[in-house]
Design goal:
Mean pLDDT: 89
InterPro entries: FUR (IPR002481), Fur_C (IPR043135), WH-like_DNA-bd_sf (IPR036388), WH_DNA-bd_sf (IPR036390)
Strand order of the largest sheet: 1-3-2
GO biological process, one term: negative regulation of DNA-templated transcription
Number of helices: 5
Number of domains: 2
GO cellular component, one term: cytoplasm
CATH class of the largest domain: Mainly Alpha
Protein name: Ferric uptake regulation protein
Shape: globular
CATH architecture of the largest domain: Orthogonal Bundle
Helix content: 40-55%
Keywords: Cytoplasm, DNA-binding, Iron, Metal-binding, Repressor, Transcription, Transcription regulation, Zinc
CATH topology of the largest domain: Arc Repressor Mutant, subunit A
């Protein structure tokens, strides 16, 4: 088990959640991916190792892992999509409309926006840019 996977295992323990083979495999699957995945994609990938795994099981685990900030979510093509949370540093994402590949954007425009909106307090934000990656163009 990788060190990163062990950190997520510890987070599950901290939140008093069961550490199941399915849940750990799901986290590992997201660690291997560089893009957002739909619940259906997760089910297809998980079904290879856990034949007959239900869509409800997948969806409950996605919801739980998002709730404890192991996963982050976005709406992409009208469907909820998930990826492993980025916790090492603050950044934003470019997401390819075709293949779903995700690239990190290190620049954060929130300070500029805060200056323009000097009468508000920004408490949280998320910036996502969409388009086509080099391969899909």
């Amino acid at each position: 088990m990788t060190q990163q996977l062990n950190q997520y295992k510890d987070k599950l323990k901290e939140k008093k959640l069961k550490i199941t083979d399915k849940r750990m495999r799901m986290i590992d699957l997201f660690l291997d991916e560089e893009r957002y995945l739909s619940a259906r994609e997760v089910q297809e990938k998980m079904n290879k190792e856990f034949p007959g795994i239900s869509y409800d099981t997948i969806y409950r685990n996605l919801y739980t892992l998002n709730d404890i900030e192991v996963l982050e979510k976005t709406t992409f093509d009208g469907e909820m999509q998930y990826k492993i949370s980025c916790t090492s540093h603050h950044h934003h994402h470019f997401i390819c409309n075709s293949c779903g590949d995700t690239k990190v954007i290190h620049y954060c425009p929130v300070d500029t926006w805060a200056d323009e909106l000097n009468d508000v307090e920004i408490t949280n934000h998320k910036v996502e840019l969409y388009g086509l990656c080099k391969s899909c163009r």
